């Protein structure tokens, strides 16, 4: 089962994830019947880059979506795919291509989620900005024009948030409770 809506705008992404997905009913690294295809550290990074935005799941892969249209995908240990109208600006380092999504004119761009050549705060700022742009762009691709009380795109009905089963606790757990936590 996929929690990302089966919309025409998501067809190519869902086809790729379905093809690469591995059904797994139980175990430490399974989520809704699928083997996790993203390292828990990258899932945490995605959550940090888009705080408060619900993470949807498709065939064991975390996805951010606006109005049900996929905007950001986290895969493996070091790949963010962002859906944008144009290539992300410098100085962001691109990630490994992900055919067929990252082909010419497909609208998906690979980014390295860690951006080690930048300072931690600059990496966080620039990647968060690209994710906000991707969410705005994805919302513009939707036929749904509803917004929430803050003017943000309403998520598709049935969207579920939360941590993946079997995932280790967040490293920033204390920080999120108001404690000191670990600083990067």
Would you write up a description of this structure?
The chain has 184 residues and is α+β, with helices and mostly antiparallel strands. It is 24% helix and 16% strand. It is globular. The model is unreliable at 156-184 (pLDDT under 50).
The gist of it:
The protein is α+β, with helices and mostly antiparallel strands and 184 residues long.
- C-alpha geometry: globular
Helix content class: 10-25%
Strand content: 15-25%
Query: What is the residue-averaged pLDDT?
Result: 80
Instruction: Name the assembly state.
Output: single chain
**Structure summary, number of beta strands:** 7
Order of helices and strands: HEEHEEEEEHH
> What profile does the largest beta sheet have?
5 strands, antiparallel
Q: Termini separation (Å)? A: 35 Å
Spatial extent as radius of gyration: 16 Å
Number of helices: 4
Instruction: State the strand order across the main sheet.
Output: 3-4-5-6-7
Q: Spans of 5+ residues with little confidence (pLDDT < 50)?
A: 156-184
Please give the structural blueprint.
Blueprint: H1 11-20, E1 30-31, E2 34-35, H2 40-49, E3 56-58, E4 61-66, E5 69-75, E6 79-83, E7 108-111, H3 120-140, H4 173-176
Antiparallel strand pairs: 1-2, 3-4, 4-5, 5-6, 6-7
